[in-house]
Amino acid sequence: MASGTVVLSVLLVDTQHTDALFLDQGVHFALGQPALSATIPKMKSGLLVSLVLYGIACCLPALTFRKSGTPDDIMLGLRALAVGWSGVFAGVLGWYANPLYFLGLAFTLMRKPVPAAIACLLAVAAACTVFNDLGRELPGDEGGVTKTAIVRVLPAFYVWVASFLVLPVAAFLQRAK
């Protein structure tokens, strides 16, 4: 590719022409600007960082479970996101940080940083309840025949919580602009 070309999704934009303005998925990209500021508007970069961290957390190992008589099971973040809601039946409430995070995301998009910060701090508090569940015996199946326990939190947990902490910062930065 030529040095004056920026790839946006499937749209090739020649940055040598400065008189055009393109709209790609609701974000305006003015040609002739530096590539980073053209692809990531400054006021949305904090939101993007938070969402990227959340996505990375889905790809990393999140928890280690120990079942009696079997080797330890490592749960990826995406699996935890998919089945974590059912933890409420065993008193495991950490998954419920997710709706609070998305509430904070909505408040951030509405430019309401204080409610966004409150929602995200509540999300962090809900997420940290996982530490109360470490080592506690949990039902391993719906019949209560097998037992399992969370024995370790893994990197996905910390990246997940980091995505919650970045969002209020993004909300306040967005308000300042």
From TrEMBL:
Transmembrane spans:
46-65, 85-107, 114-132, 152-173
- Does Membrane count among this protein's keywords? yes
Q: Which UniProt keywords apply?
A: Membrane, Transmembrane, Transmembrane helix
Q: What is this protein called?
A: Uncharacterized protein
